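Q&A log
Question type: sequence-to-structure
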Amino acid sequence: MAENSLQDLVRRMRAVPELKAIFTNLWGGDDVYRRFFFAHRDLLFPRIEEEDFHATIPLLFAGTDPSEPEEQVLVTAGESRRAQLEVLGETTEKKVDEISQDAKTAACLLVLRFVARNPELKALLDQGEPSWAAVAKAFAKTPPVLDIFEEFKPGPASPGADKVFYEKSRRYAAWVKDVVRKGDVVKYASAIDLSNNLIPFYGPCRSHLADLLDARDLAADEHRRILQSLYLQRMITNVGTTFWCARCQDDVTMITSRSRIAPDQLVLPCPKCTKPMHVATLYEPNPLIHEACFSTDGMLGVSIGWLLSTRGIAFHSGTYARDQELDFRLELGGRRILLEAKMHKTDKDDEAVQRHLSGDVSQAARHAEEIKKGGDRLDEVWIVTNYHHDEVEQELRGVYIRNRAKISTHGIEFVQAADLPGQLAEAATSTSTPSAGRKIRSR
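Response status: OK
Response body:
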């Protein structure tokens, strides 16, 4: 994330009073908040993996405790489809499928057209998969051509318009007008009502939630507590809830709702057998939380920016030393510090963890070398990851031993996120020269 982008996001988040409580908890004593929000976005948000479709759902999932046996919870896809078609009708459902497929094709066409009309980008693709730095450099050199929407311009098709795309866009526009005229808006809105479509996603989302809880060492009730807190602060809101009872085998009972329902209110008795029904719901986060979680270093990087800003510590973010992007550069107590934020997927084995941490050191060393080659002074490098140091202490010690030379040369240190506020305060008041490569800080 470029400097202006991160600092602008931090500024906008600081302007929302309800978000202050989240950051206060993140940098205070609530480790549960850190374990939740400092999770990699692929762990925090459900990810659907199909043979020809891979996508992250930018919504937070809640539902029946994932520790319950699967066969006692899940209903068949046939039952789910039956309930959906009762709302949509066969014709409507087919129309929604057609629109979905055409939307994917249109998106791909526009992206390829954008690349084709920008020679700098096309040249990058010819060289292989481009890096962020290479694309940013190309944009800086030549402003991109953005005029790629011929099919949406009023009037007859322009010479550069794709005939098929043009005809489809006009046909869909006429169809929408017809839907509105006939008063079928509610019917078609139901087609995209997630409350009618949660069952097919429940299996993957349930498995994903179990992975999140395991990877971040969270209990199910701690996860609900976080969601409840966010809900009460209106930082998340329901986009659909489905209740069902798999015990009534004669005819599965399903009830859907588009109402706001708090995480601690997701309880409903089955109208047939009166036993508690299973539930699945998705919560949409506040747009700023979504933007932070999907930024380069996730909520970890944005939270560091918030912490520095609220303490009045001047910093630069997203700057470059040659082609190396730097996370944060700041000065405290006369010491110039490079602070690197590293957001990892923490559901890896010990060997992978050590590779990740060693890679962090190697990258930090490269960044430090480029800064010094550019004639700037650099006294220390802090690496803040989303790992809890007590859980990876052995791996950290191995990394310190194997990378002793790099760590000593550049004053590299792993700083646990929970310890960052204290370390900033200590650095601001200290006048002593730091020793290169301090010891591991653990809680």
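Response note: The mean pLDDT is 81.
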